[in-house]
Amino acid sequence: MQNHTLFNLQHELHPSMKALILKFFFVAICCGCTLISVAQQPAQGLELTRTIRSWEFLPVTGTRAGLFGNETGRFEAWVYPLKIFRDFHLTFHVGDRALPAESLARTLTVRPESATILYVGDSFRVRETLCVPVQEAGAVIKFEVETEQPLEIEAAFTPDFQLEWPAALGGTYVSWDAKEHAFFFVEESRKYGAFVGSPTAQDAHVAYETNYSASNENSMRLGVTPKGKETRVVAIAASVAGLGEAAKTYEHLLSSSADLEHDASQYYRAYLDRTIGLELPDAALQQAYDWARISTVQGVVTNPYLGTGLVAGYKTSGVGQRPGFAWFFGRDSEWTSFALNAEGDFATSRAALDFISKYQRDDGKVPHEISQSATLVPWFKDFPYPWASADATPLFIIAVNDYAVQSGDAAFVREKWDNLWRAYQFLRSTYDTNGMAQNAGIGHGWVEGGPLLPVKSEYYQAGLAVEALRALSNLARLAGKDDVSKQLAAEFDKGRKTLESEFWAPEANNYAFALDQKNQRINELSVLTTVPMWFGLADPNNANETITKLAADDHQTDWGMRIISNHSKIYDGSGYHYGAVWPLFTGWASVGEYRYHRAFPAYANLRANALLGVDGALGHFTEVLSGDYCQSFATSSPHQIWSAAMVISPILRGMFGLQIDSEKHQVRLAPHFPADWTSVAMSNVRMGGTVLDLHYRKTADSIAMDVARKGTGDCWIEFSPAVSLRTDVVSAELNGRPIAFKVEPNANDQHVKVRFPAYGGPNNLVIKVKNDFGLTLSNELPPLGSASRGLRVTSEAWNAQRNQLTLETSGRAGEHYELNVWNSGQVSSVEGATLSKSGKLEVQMPQGPADSYVSQKVTLHFGH
């Protein structure tokens, strides 16, 4: 706990500093009141509104500051790496009543740049808008008052002026001066300073402590609003360069508050405009994709000591100094970079990878965690956290390659070659006698603790290490090191074969979670096995068998993937690493399932992640949920960056099958769209200097793709949509002329591959088909706190003649489910279900124990 010794700041400051502050406040008060009265409204963009949930987290963030609280308006303030205060809250004074604002909070409206809480009393309304400008070291709170009788807002908070964990300031001091209408925060060295105040603030009460009484709360009143409408404003600013610098920021926030809010709105609007935009027939998925892009980029933080990188997530710190995971993580940044690359935000991806590489250990190991106060303590030497994981090192190599392939930035590869090569050398030092990367004695792969440990090597970690060889082989080629590239390619081929033989468990018919210290497989089935599938490392048949098991109700909940089966002896639904559901896992599974053509579980996992964006912290995606009930952990970080990224990657890399290769001037789309999607659009697909807009259209007998392009240079499109194994492909035409195509079947579907150059004029591809058929299941989240209740389709199997399709399904005992049917007229009869007159496949589950899941086989017969 910090030591608050309170005193009147004006008597302690140097006379020159006092003069500067008095001058600044005179200007701020005059300018602030004038500008507020002519406030320009922020540009409208994305917006979500709902009734207040008092328990839900509410974050408002910029790159240098953040406000973290709950939907009733109680929050804490940070200007990185400083915490300013906690427990900010309001009281409305009306007549002789003092009304706590929390009891009057009615609705919340969030936008990318701000959050607005509407408070309503019998005779008044107050809109409190929290805004953290994107590049400013502070925040602004605006109060729009509308009242029938005199009303005054009192704002109170507990001072908590300290550095983010694990550093500390020691004694800190807070004082109020009525002439300046603000609280001042400083510490003994005067290196750090902050301001909290308002041009109209008065009647302040200052925290104090004596031998006989104490109060830890500071408060100020913002002036009486008579009958009518008025606006009040509070500004928060801080600096690690002293009180003078904080004063300048404070003045700027007051004098330009409306412009800064408008600029923040435009910043996020421009971000959406320059990254890949989608038009989807699934409105919930559309909304989630747009908010996921915003939520992901809000992980960008600029720290005055460390630079700009990606933090892991946000949460309130309470009486401590750890705001969720609002410090920098290696593997979080790397997994998030895959989503940034997919949507075309190469600048943020490069910045994140560059940041992580700056703190790489001499032996090549890539850091796991970097606190925002890392340079103020012996972080990298005396603390265990920086080097706790092993997976950040291979992920760094893979992420740099993913960035380079899509962006075409070979210069970055050459710049980072030493970092990449040292990472590879460290990786080699972790190999066992079979050439597999180990975790034992090196760092955790994914699992950090709990009954799944100890292990020698996780399949997750070993798979990443093998994929890193393929990635580094390509990076070596881009860096002009062809001999090294060939050597690494050979190592990859060998490593991939060893990976398969070591971790495929034929006796269990699935991939093993890990190898133990005796090199024996630990056959506990885990969703972590989908990570090598993400990269296409798994044998197709073995991947199919594993996915079928993972798609069952003991692994897949309505809100995502459990880390292990709830039938396991070591399962605990509250176990962070032995039972919980992580959107991260769910995203891994979705991308892996799409890659191996398992669209039913892939889409279910994709929607589960997407729907979380309006089911928790509004517009954001939580870190971890219970394995038993649709409920976030009490300890979860409610705004977790890689959780948002795991909406973007499953949509673009998974469902769309989007792959951009700038060196080959090629954009590849291999979509697995739901069968009843008839129109999908994609804009701002960037490949080198080319920008593409694409429009997918579907009818009963055709699939079409229209491509419009801007820019110069070669550009090739490889379009490879999935169709059912029953579908006959008749022809393909580009701009009315025949074009060659290939049909590539697999165990679950087939893809019609067409490759063509995209010119500046019209590019209209039409693929003619017959007997196209498909089923669509659109899952929903259950009510908060409920158990799973949705249908699972665990496998699909066509007979050799393609006139019979068998589905293995499971659902709640006695429940009724419906699937949409594309081209239902082809179905002649159904066993285990019924086909309604409206073309729905209706599945009635058998009776069984209450709330239990039961199985049902469904067979569809086709007339020809």
Characterize the structure shown:
This protein has 864 residues and is of the alpha+beta class. The protein is 28% helix and 32% strand. A nine-stranded antiparallel beta sheet has the order 1-7-8-9-10-19-14-13-12, covered by helices on one side. A hairpin with a 2-residue loop joins strand 41 and strand 42. It is globular and about 85 Å long. The model is unreliable at 1-44 (pLDDT under 50).
Key structural traits:
disordered N terminus, 18 helices, 32% strand, single chain, alpha+beta, globular, eight-stranded antiparallel beta sheet, nine-stranded antiparallel beta sheet, 864 residues
Give me the Rg, rounded.
Answer: 29 Å
> Per DSSP, what share of the residues sits in E-state strands of 2 or more residues?
25-35%
Q: Which shape, going by the Cα principal axes?
A: globular
> Would you report the number of β strands?
53
Helical element count?
Answer: 18
